[in-house]
Amino acid sequence: MPSILAPWMFFHGLSDDPAVAAAEDWIETKNPEVAATWFRALLRFAAEEDPIPLPSTVSLWQSYLLHRLFFSTFPSPDEGKEWHRALQGGLAADLRRLRPLYHLDPAPLLESLGLRPEVLSPDFTSAASTARGNTLLNQWLSDRLTEVARSLETTEDCAILADLFTRAFRSMGSGPAARHWVFKWEGPSRGLAPVIEPDPITVADLVGYERQRKQVLQNTEQFVLGLPANNVLLYGDRGTGKSSLVKALVHEFGARGLRLVEVARRDLGDFPLIVRLLRRRPQKFILFFDDLSFSEGETFYKDLKTLLEGGVERRPNNVLLYATSNRRHLVNERFSDRGWPTRGDEEDDLHLEDTVQEKLSLADRFGLTVSFLSPDQELFLEMVGHMAKRAGLEIEEDSLRRLALQWERRHNGRSGRSARQFVDHLAGELALEKKKVDLR
């Protein structure tokens, strides 16, 4: 086995991992002190890191290693490209070093600490079996990691293992973009922060706007497949499901490599930095600007214009922009922009028409513009019925329609958001009535 001081060639992050160093030290020295370091790292992993649930045949130690292998940042193969031979050779060499660690029997380490092997049983480390967050993502990752675990159990040839790992990395990527599907940009100092529990809405949850949904889904599928695709502006009335559709895309295409990065309007100027972080990743990234609009006096729209047109920093092929807005032209145009008199100070712009055109042409720079109008009564009731069915509400259809129309008149009018608010209210009301009956 290589010396414990030798650097890892491919999995370089393991060089600084205390549990891995302790396990290698234990194999050579059987020192109880390093066993304690190893044990503490496993407990911290089970309690704090929200591990992906894996079959009981995969020990907690093996789960720890799999998480370190795939959710630390390592070189990832681009789709359709071969890795450099040096990378493939480094991967095979590291896998030869990894196999004895992966098959390490935890019992002697625990016994050296006066502990029984059951202390690391699935029942004891229950946190490792109930990962929070995106259920679909967790299941998909669990399936991928289980395949890798099975290969490590049954395959001794490290060249074959290297090919298997290459395919796994090509499918999953590595680092945070493998562990999470949704991120928020939190500025240059904090960078990309994973969203642990993203909105669970799926395309199947949406109703109405079939034409608009088809346009956005087709454009996104082209993007995921590496085909030409456009930046997208979804605009229209409030509450019509524009943002919900964008959020649902990641659950539709996440297993195929799509990632969603929410970026605030104030951070548009950070685009070059964001691009440098994403450019070499194998996944496809949608930069999502929600409820995008610009007030008079703001200059953020100039950053967006540069971003859409391309400047010194070219937008890479694995990045697109999707924005939602209640305004067709994104920028709030004033009467003074048209040269019409106002009660305030007069605008003194020698190039007034250029200013107007610059503002109004901003939306045109999105390759695909999709409009959403408030639903008519029948579509609103269809939305309510669909949501109520998915929520499992037991109520007569006539009563549901009558209550929905009352809600529409008394509250926020007709929209997808209003339909959701009504169904949530009704679900709580029915559940409360049932509780009162049960308590009698």
Automatic annotation (TrEMBL):
SMART domains from the xrefs? Answer: AAA
Q: Which residues form the signal peptide?
A: none
Residues annotated as domain AAA+ ATPase: 228-345
Q: Which residues cross the membrane?
A: none
| Pfam families (UniProt xref) | DUF815 (PF05673)
Q: What is this protein called?
A: AAA+ ATPase domain-containing protein
Q: Which organism is it from?
A: Kyrpidia tusciae (strain DSM 2912 / NBRC 15312 / T2)
- Tell me the organism's taxonomic lineage: Bacteria, Bacillati, Bacillota, Bacilli, Bacillales
